[in-house]
Amino acid sequence: MQPLKRYYITGLAGLWILGFVLHFVYDWSGQNKLLGLFVPVNESTWEHMKLLFFPMLFFSAIMHQRFSGEFPCIVPALFCGTLAGTFLIPTLFYTYSGILGKNLFPLDIAVFLCSTAAAVFTAYRLTLSCRARPCRTLLFFSMAVLLAAFFLFTYRAPDLGLFANPVLPGAAG
Hints:
Layout: H1 3-28, H2 33-36, H3 45-67, H4 74-100, H5 105-129, H6 136-155
Helix pairs in contact: 1-3, 1-5, 3-4, 4-5, 4-6
């Protein structure tokens, strides 16, 4: 197996593990405000998008360091994959929960796994094809805007459904 493919496959497994661990870091840290900028501070869909975005950003730095000389299109490809996977989370979550009329924990996990796999697969394919390279400025700008939005909306979330904690069955409303 070629090294690039092996890194992407290994990276996917690492992203899944890191995503699961990061889900709990805010509470484990005693609700550290600085860590909260990078990990979910509540159960909103928006906050769960961080579970893919920030690990993929870290993974992108590793992949850039290792492969940018051999694959000059790797950074735009990774950014495209990161954006696609990050926005696939609310798309899949609201699609399935809208159809079922509720959300289910096993499907929430499946949404994260599928979105992360889609992000990595997209990045891998675009690394090889270089089709994302012409969009690199737009991709860098989009990543910067999303990063700023995560920081801004962590503690100052708009009053929109994407940012709201879901109402759990049996909870007082």
